[in-house]
Specification:
Layout: E1 4-11, H1 23-38, E2 47-51, H2 55-59, E3 79-82, H3 88-101, E4 107-114, H4 121-130, H5 138-141, H6 143-159, H7 163-177, H8 191-195, E5 199-201, E6 204-205, E7 215-223, H9 224-227, E8 233-242, H10 256-269, H11 274-277, E9 280-282, H12 290-297, H13 306-312, H14 338-351, E10 364-371, E11 376-383
Parallel strand pairs: 2-3, 2-4, 9-10
Antiparallel strand pairs: 1-7, 1-8, 4-7, 5-6, 8-11, 10-11
Helix pairs in contact: 3-14
Length: 386
Protein backbone atom coordinates (compact mmCIF):
# COMPACT_ATOMS: atom_id res chain seq x y z
CA UNK A 1 0.00 0.00 0.00
CA UNK A 2 1.40 3.38 -1.03
CA UNK A 3 1.95 6.25 1.38
CA UNK A 4 -0.78 8.87 1.14
CA UNK A 5 -1.10 12.47 2.33
CA UNK A 6 -3.67 15.23 2.49
CA UNK A 7 -2.16 18.10 0.53
CA UNK A 8 -5.08 20.54 0.57
CA UNK A 9 -8.24 21.32 2.50
CA UNK A 10 -11.13 23.68 1.91
CA UNK A 11 -14.14 24.83 3.87
CA UNK A 12 -16.41 27.82 4.02
CA UNK A 13 -17.86 29.78 6.95
CA UNK A 14 -20.95 27.87 8.10
CA UNK A 15 -24.21 29.52 9.04
CA UNK A 16 -27.91 28.75 9.46
CA UNK A 17 -29.00 29.80 5.99
CA UNK A 18 -27.27 30.30 2.67
CA UNK A 19 -30.09 31.07 0.20
CA UNK A 20 -27.74 32.69 -2.32
CA UNK A 21 -26.23 29.36 -3.44
CA UNK A 22 -27.49 26.00 -4.70
CA UNK A 23 -25.90 22.62 -3.95
CA UNK A 24 -23.48 22.79 -6.87
CA UNK A 25 -22.30 26.28 -5.97
CA UNK A 26 -21.95 25.39 -2.29
CA UNK A 27 -19.65 22.45 -3.05
CA UNK A 28 -17.67 24.48 -5.59
CA UNK A 29 -16.80 27.07 -2.93
CA UNK A 30 -14.92 24.60 -0.71
CA UNK A 31 -13.45 22.71 -3.67
CA UNK A 32 -11.95 25.95 -4.97
CA UNK A 33 -10.33 26.56 -1.57
CA UNK A 34 -8.94 23.01 -1.43
CA UNK A 35 -7.41 23.32 -4.91
CA UNK A 36 -5.82 26.62 -3.99
CA UNK A 37 -4.49 25.22 -0.72
CA UNK A 38 -3.02 22.17 -2.48
CA UNK A 39 -1.58 24.15 -5.37
CA UNK A 40 -3.15 21.89 -7.99
CA UNK A 41 -5.35 22.56 -11.00
CA UNK A 42 -8.82 21.07 -11.62
CA UNK A 43 -7.37 18.99 -14.44
CA UNK A 44 -4.92 17.35 -12.03
CA UNK A 45 -7.77 15.67 -10.13
CA UNK A 46 -8.16 12.08 -11.36
CA UNK A 47 -11.23 10.92 -9.42
CA UNK A 48 -13.82 12.37 -7.04
CA UNK A 49 -15.76 11.13 -4.00
CA UNK A 50 -18.89 12.85 -2.70
CA UNK A 51 -20.46 12.29 0.71
CA UNK A 52 -24.10 13.05 1.49
CA UNK A 53 -26.03 12.17 4.63
CA UNK A 54 -29.77 12.68 4.24
CA UNK A 55 -29.89 15.20 1.40
CA UNK A 56 -32.59 13.26 -0.46
CA UNK A 57 -35.18 14.31 2.13
CA UNK A 58 -33.61 17.67 2.90
CA UNK A 59 -33.14 18.87 -0.68
CA UNK A 60 -35.91 16.88 -2.36
CA UNK A 61 -33.40 15.40 -4.82
CA UNK A 62 -32.53 11.73 -4.93
CA UNK A 63 -28.82 10.97 -5.40
CA UNK A 64 -27.75 14.57 -5.12
CA UNK A 65 -24.19 13.47 -5.87
CA UNK A 66 -25.03 13.36 -9.55
CA UNK A 67 -25.54 17.14 -9.54
CA UNK A 68 -22.19 18.11 -8.06
CA UNK A 69 -19.80 16.18 -10.32
CA UNK A 70 -18.87 19.28 -12.34
CA UNK A 71 -18.44 21.30 -9.14
CA UNK A 72 -15.88 18.74 -7.96
CA UNK A 73 -13.73 18.67 -11.12
CA UNK A 74 -15.30 15.30 -11.92
CA UNK A 75 -16.29 15.79 -15.57
CA UNK A 76 -15.59 12.51 -17.43
CA UNK A 77 -13.71 11.12 -14.42
CA UNK A 78 -14.44 8.24 -12.01
CA UNK A 79 -17.01 9.43 -9.48
CA UNK A 80 -18.10 7.76 -6.25
CA UNK A 81 -20.88 8.65 -3.79
CA UNK A 82 -21.16 7.47 -0.18
CA UNK A 83 -23.99 7.64 2.33
CA UNK A 84 -23.07 6.60 5.88
CA UNK A 85 -25.05 9.10 7.94
CA UNK A 86 -23.04 11.40 10.17
CA UNK A 87 -19.76 9.67 9.31
CA UNK A 88 -20.20 10.27 5.59
CA UNK A 89 -17.73 13.14 5.30
CA UNK A 90 -14.98 11.09 6.92
CA UNK A 91 -16.02 8.01 4.93
CA UNK A 92 -15.54 10.03 1.75
CA UNK A 93 -12.02 11.00 2.83
CA UNK A 94 -11.13 7.40 3.71
CA UNK A 95 -12.48 6.26 0.34
CA UNK A 96 -10.24 8.82 -1.38
CA UNK A 97 -7.30 7.64 0.71
CA UNK A 98 -7.96 4.04 -0.29
CA UNK A 99 -8.19 4.95 -3.99
CA UNK A 100 -4.81 6.66 -3.88
CA UNK A 101 -3.17 4.07 -1.64
CA UNK A 102 -4.23 1.34 -4.08
CA UNK A 103 -2.10 2.85 -6.80
CA UNK A 104 -5.01 3.48 -9.16
CA UNK A 105 -4.89 7.27 -8.78
CA UNK A 106 -2.40 9.92 -7.72
CA UNK A 107 -4.80 12.76 -6.83
CA UNK A 108 -8.37 12.26 -5.59
CA UNK A 109 -10.74 14.95 -4.36
CA UNK A 110 -13.38 14.29 -1.68
CA UNK A 111 -16.14 16.75 -0.81
CA UNK A 112 -19.28 16.91 1.32
CA UNK A 113 -21.94 19.42 2.22
CA UNK A 114 -25.65 20.18 2.29
CA UNK A 115 -27.18 23.47 1.28
CA UNK A 116 -30.47 23.05 3.17
CA UNK A 117 -29.40 21.57 6.51
CA UNK A 118 -30.31 24.67 8.45
CA UNK A 119 -33.61 25.11 6.64
CA UNK A 120 -34.95 21.65 7.26
CA UNK A 121 -34.26 20.68 10.86
CA UNK A 122 -37.67 19.02 11.30
CA UNK A 123 -37.25 17.07 8.08
CA UNK A 124 -33.78 16.00 9.19
CA UNK A 125 -35.13 14.56 12.44
CA UNK A 126 -37.91 12.80 10.54
CA UNK A 127 -35.30 11.25 8.25
CA UNK A 128 -33.23 10.13 11.22
CA UNK A 129 -36.32 8.61 12.82
CA UNK A 130 -36.99 6.64 9.65
CA UNK A 131 -33.40 5.37 9.59
CA UNK A 132 -33.85 3.11 12.62
CA UNK A 133 -35.44 -0.31 12.85
CA UNK A 134 -39.17 0.01 11.95
CA UNK A 135 -40.29 -2.69 14.41
CA UNK A 136 -38.14 -2.31 17.51
CA UNK A 137 -37.13 1.34 17.78
CA UNK A 138 -38.86 3.67 15.31
CA UNK A 139 -41.93 4.14 17.49
CA UNK A 140 -39.97 5.88 20.24
CA UNK A 141 -36.75 6.94 18.50
CA UNK A 142 -37.71 10.63 18.28
CA UNK A 143 -34.89 11.32 15.84
CA UNK A 144 -31.29 11.86 16.95
CA UNK A 145 -31.98 13.80 20.15
CA UNK A 146 -33.98 11.12 21.93
CA UNK A 147 -31.29 8.50 21.36
CA UNK A 148 -28.63 10.91 22.58
CA UNK A 149 -30.69 11.73 25.68
CA UNK A 150 -30.95 8.07 26.64
CA UNK A 151 -27.23 7.48 26.17
CA UNK A 152 -26.41 10.72 28.01
CA UNK A 153 -28.34 9.52 31.05
CA UNK A 154 -26.80 6.06 30.84
CA UNK A 155 -23.33 7.61 30.63
CA UNK A 156 -23.91 9.71 33.75
CA UNK A 157 -25.25 6.75 35.72
CA UNK A 158 -22.30 4.57 34.70
CA UNK A 159 -19.42 7.03 35.14
CA UNK A 160 -20.63 9.51 37.74
CA UNK A 161 -20.34 12.39 35.32
CA UNK A 162 -22.90 15.16 35.73
CA UNK A 163 -24.72 17.66 33.57
CA UNK A 164 -22.23 20.23 34.81
CA UNK A 165 -19.33 18.23 33.35
CA UNK A 166 -21.18 18.12 30.05
CA UNK A 167 -21.82 21.87 30.23
CA UNK A 168 -18.11 22.45 30.75
CA UNK A 169 -17.50 20.64 27.45
CA UNK A 170 -19.85 23.08 25.71
CA UNK A 171 -18.07 26.06 27.26
CA UNK A 172 -14.73 24.71 25.99
CA UNK A 173 -16.14 24.10 22.50
CA UNK A 174 -17.54 27.62 22.21
CA UNK A 175 -14.32 29.13 23.55
CA UNK A 176 -12.41 27.30 20.81
CA UNK A 177 -14.97 28.20 18.14
CA UNK A 178 -14.53 31.89 18.94
CA UNK A 179 -11.06 31.60 17.34
CA UNK A 180 -12.29 29.73 14.26
CA UNK A 181 -13.49 31.99 11.41
CA UNK A 182 -15.32 29.04 9.78
CA UNK A 183 -17.36 28.03 12.84
CA UNK A 184 -21.13 28.56 12.94
CA UNK A 185 -21.63 29.33 16.66
CA UNK A 186 -18.76 31.54 17.81
CA UNK A 187 -20.40 33.16 20.83
CA UNK A 188 -18.93 32.16 24.18
CA UNK A 189 -21.23 30.68 26.84
CA UNK A 190 -20.99 29.87 30.54
CA UNK A 191 -21.80 26.71 32.45
CA UNK A 192 -24.91 28.41 33.83
CA UNK A 193 -25.99 29.36 30.31
CA UNK A 194 -25.91 25.70 29.32
CA UNK A 195 -27.57 24.37 32.47
CA UNK A 196 -30.34 26.96 32.29
CA UNK A 197 -31.06 26.61 28.59
CA UNK A 198 -34.47 25.17 27.63
CA UNK A 199 -34.83 21.39 28.00
CA UNK A 200 -35.32 19.35 24.84
CA UNK A 201 -35.24 15.75 26.04
CA UNK A 202 -33.82 15.70 29.57
CA UNK A 203 -30.98 15.64 30.36
CA UNK A 204 -30.38 17.20 26.92
CA UNK A 205 -30.90 20.96 26.87
CA UNK A 206 -30.73 23.30 23.91
CA UNK A 207 -27.12 24.32 24.46
CA UNK A 208 -26.07 20.70 24.91
CA UNK A 209 -26.85 20.11 21.26
CA UNK A 210 -25.07 21.04 18.05
CA UNK A 211 -26.64 23.52 15.61
CA UNK A 212 -27.93 22.76 12.13
CA UNK A 213 -25.48 24.44 9.78
CA UNK A 214 -25.16 25.08 6.08
CA UNK A 215 -21.70 24.69 4.56
CA UNK A 216 -19.28 22.42 2.76
CA UNK A 217 -15.78 21.00 2.96
CA UNK A 218 -13.28 19.41 0.60
CA UNK A 219 -10.04 17.46 0.88
CA UNK A 220 -7.39 16.64 -1.71
CA UNK A 221 -5.55 13.38 -1.20
CA UNK A 222 -2.32 12.62 -3.06
CA UNK A 223 0.27 9.89 -3.44
CA UNK A 224 3.74 10.16 -1.96
CA UNK A 225 5.42 11.27 -5.19
CA UNK A 226 2.97 14.20 -5.42
CA UNK A 227 3.01 15.08 -1.72
CA UNK A 228 6.78 15.09 -1.18
CA UNK A 229 8.02 18.65 -0.88
CA UNK A 230 4.56 20.03 -0.06
CA UNK A 231 3.25 21.06 3.33
CA UNK A 232 0.95 18.12 3.98
CA UNK A 233 -0.59 15.80 6.58
CA UNK A 234 0.41 12.16 6.10
CA UNK A 235 -2.36 9.61 6.58
CA UNK A 236 -0.58 7.15 8.82
CA UNK A 237 -3.58 5.14 10.01
CA UNK A 238 -7.25 4.93 9.08
CA UNK A 239 -10.11 2.57 9.76
CA UNK A 240 -13.88 2.46 9.52
CA UNK A 241 -16.16 0.11 11.45
CA UNK A 242 -19.86 -0.64 11.01
CA UNK A 243 -21.73 -2.14 13.93
CA UNK A 244 -25.21 -3.63 13.34
CA UNK A 245 -27.94 -1.18 14.24
CA UNK A 246 -29.94 -3.73 16.21
CA UNK A 247 -28.89 -6.99 17.81
CA UNK A 248 -29.68 -8.74 21.12
CA UNK A 249 -28.25 -7.02 24.18
CA UNK A 250 -26.65 -4.21 22.20
CA UNK A 251 -25.39 -1.48 24.51
CA UNK A 252 -24.61 1.74 22.65
CA UNK A 253 -22.65 3.01 25.65
CA UNK A 254 -19.97 0.42 24.87
CA UNK A 255 -19.21 2.26 21.61
CA UNK A 256 -17.74 -0.91 20.17
CA UNK A 257 -17.38 0.54 16.67
CA UNK A 258 -15.39 3.54 17.95
CA UNK A 259 -13.06 1.43 20.06
CA UNK A 260 -12.41 -1.05 17.27
CA UNK A 261 -11.76 1.67 14.70
CA UNK A 262 -9.38 3.40 17.12
CA UNK A 263 -7.42 0.23 17.86
CA UNK A 264 -6.99 -0.60 14.18
CA UNK A 265 -6.05 2.97 13.19
CA UNK A 266 -3.46 3.27 15.97
CA UNK A 267 -1.99 -0.09 15.00
CA UNK A 268 -1.71 0.94 11.35
CA UNK A 269 -0.14 4.26 12.37
CA UNK A 270 2.36 2.60 14.69
CA UNK A 271 1.06 4.49 17.73
CA UNK A 272 1.66 2.17 20.65
CA UNK A 273 1.00 4.79 23.34
CA UNK A 274 -1.56 7.14 21.75
CA UNK A 275 -2.19 8.97 25.02
CA UNK A 276 1.41 10.19 24.90
CA UNK A 277 1.86 10.39 21.13
CA UNK A 278 -1.24 12.35 20.08
CA UNK A 279 -1.24 16.15 20.41
CA UNK A 280 -4.72 17.05 19.06
CA UNK A 281 -8.08 15.29 18.79
CA UNK A 282 -10.94 16.32 16.52
CA UNK A 283 -13.99 14.25 17.45
CA UNK A 284 -17.63 14.11 16.45
CA UNK A 285 -19.47 15.44 19.51
CA UNK A 286 -23.02 16.21 18.40
CA UNK A 287 -24.06 16.36 22.07
CA UNK A 288 -22.10 17.71 25.03
CA UNK A 289 -21.53 14.46 26.96
CA UNK A 290 -20.02 12.81 23.86
CA UNK A 291 -16.81 14.78 24.35
CA UNK A 292 -16.16 12.61 27.40
CA UNK A 293 -17.68 9.43 25.99
CA UNK A 294 -15.60 9.52 22.80
CA UNK A 295 -12.32 10.36 24.50
CA UNK A 296 -12.76 7.20 26.55
CA UNK A 297 -13.87 5.16 23.53
CA UNK A 298 -10.86 6.41 21.57
CA UNK A 299 -8.73 4.91 24.36
CA UNK A 300 -7.20 8.30 25.11
CA UNK A 301 -8.24 8.04 28.75
CA UNK A 302 -9.66 5.36 31.03
CA UNK A 303 -13.36 4.58 31.28
CA UNK A 304 -14.96 7.09 33.65
CA UNK A 305 -11.81 9.25 33.76
CA UNK A 306 -12.88 11.91 31.26
CA UNK A 307 -14.97 13.88 33.76
CA UNK A 308 -11.89 14.40 35.94
CA UNK A 309 -9.82 15.50 32.95
CA UNK A 310 -12.55 17.97 31.99
CA UNK A 311 -12.41 19.43 35.50
CA UNK A 312 -8.62 19.76 35.24
CA UNK A 313 -8.85 21.46 31.84
CA UNK A 314 -6.81 18.76 30.09
CA UNK A 315 -9.04 18.94 26.99
CA UNK A 316 -8.94 22.74 26.71
CA UNK A 317 -7.04 24.71 24.06
CA UNK A 318 -4.02 25.05 26.34
CA UNK A 319 -4.50 21.70 28.08
CA UNK A 320 -2.54 18.45 27.94
CA UNK A 321 -4.57 17.06 25.02
CA UNK A 322 -6.64 19.73 23.24
CA UNK A 323 -9.99 18.47 21.97
CA UNK A 324 -11.66 20.17 19.00
CA UNK A 325 -9.63 23.39 18.79
CA UNK A 326 -11.99 24.18 15.91
CA UNK A 327 -15.03 24.13 18.23
CA UNK A 328 -16.11 20.76 16.85
CA UNK A 329 -19.62 19.64 16.00
CA UNK A 330 -21.04 21.46 19.03
CA UNK A 331 -20.24 24.67 17.16
CA UNK A 332 -20.72 23.60 13.53
CA UNK A 333 -22.86 20.75 12.24
CA UNK A 334 -23.76 20.19 8.65
CA UNK A 335 -24.75 16.53 8.76
CA UNK A 336 -22.91 15.81 5.51
CA UNK A 337 -19.58 17.55 6.12
CA UNK A 338 -19.30 17.46 9.93
CA UNK A 339 -17.13 14.33 9.97
CA UNK A 340 -15.05 15.59 7.04
CA UNK A 341 -14.38 18.78 8.99
CA UNK A 342 -12.83 16.65 11.73
CA UNK A 343 -10.27 15.38 9.20
CA UNK A 344 -9.87 18.85 7.69
CA UNK A 345 -9.20 20.45 11.07
CA UNK A 346 -6.82 17.68 12.15
CA UNK A 347 -4.91 18.16 8.88
CA UNK A 348 -4.85 21.93 9.40
CA UNK A 349 -3.27 21.40 12.83
CA UNK A 350 -0.63 18.99 11.50
CA UNK A 351 0.23 21.36 8.64
CA UNK A 352 0.44 24.30 11.04
CA UNK A 353 -2.18 26.33 9.18
CA UNK A 354 -4.59 26.88 12.07
CA UNK A 355 -3.97 30.58 12.62
CA UNK A 356 -5.57 31.68 15.90
CA UNK A 357 -6.83 28.12 16.50
CA UNK A 358 -3.40 26.50 16.02
CA UNK A 359 -2.46 24.75 19.26
CA UNK A 360 1.27 24.52 18.59
CA UNK A 361 3.60 22.01 16.99
CA UNK A 362 1.37 19.02 16.23
CA UNK A 363 3.12 15.80 15.22
CA UNK A 364 0.08 13.48 15.42
CA UNK A 365 -3.62 14.28 15.31
CA UNK A 366 -6.65 12.01 15.52
CA UNK A 367 -9.90 12.67 13.65
CA UNK A 368 -13.00 10.67 14.55
CA UNK A 369 -16.39 10.40 12.83
CA UNK A 370 -19.62 8.86 14.09
CA UNK A 371 -23.09 8.29 12.75
CA UNK A 372 -25.85 6.02 11.54
CA UNK A 373 -27.93 4.47 14.31
CA UNK A 374 -24.99 5.10 16.67
CA UNK A 375 -23.30 2.33 14.68
CA UNK A 376 -20.71 3.78 12.27
CA UNK A 377 -17.28 5.06 13.27
CA UNK A 378 -14.19 6.29 11.48
CA UNK A 379 -10.78 7.07 12.95
CA UNK A 380 -7.95 8.69 11.03
CA UNK A 381 -4.42 9.37 12.31
CA UNK A 382 -2.62 12.23 10.58
CA UNK A 383 1.06 12.89 11.11
CA UNK A 384 3.73 15.40 10.20
CA UNK A 385 6.11 12.59 9.19
CA UNK A 386 5.32 9.97 6.54
Amino acid sequence: MRKVAIIGTGQIPHRSRMPEVNEQELIALSVREALRDAGVEPGDVEAVVFGSAITSIQDGIEQVGKLVVDSMCGHLKPSFRLQTGGTVGASAVLAAVSLVASGDFDIVLAAAGTVRAGASGARSQRALQMAVDPIYTRGFSGGAIMGLAMTFRQYMETTGATETHAAMCVVNARENASRNPYAHLREKVTVDDVLNSPPIAPPVKRLDMCPTSVGSAAVIVASENIARGKKCAWVRGFFAVAEPATYPERNVLEARCVKEAARKAYLMAGLHQPRKEVQVVELYNACSYQTMHWMEALLLCDAGEAKTLVEKGDFSFTGRLPVNPSGGVLATNNGSDAAMLRVVEAAVQVMGKGGERQVGDVKNAVAMGWGGAQQFATVCVLSKEA
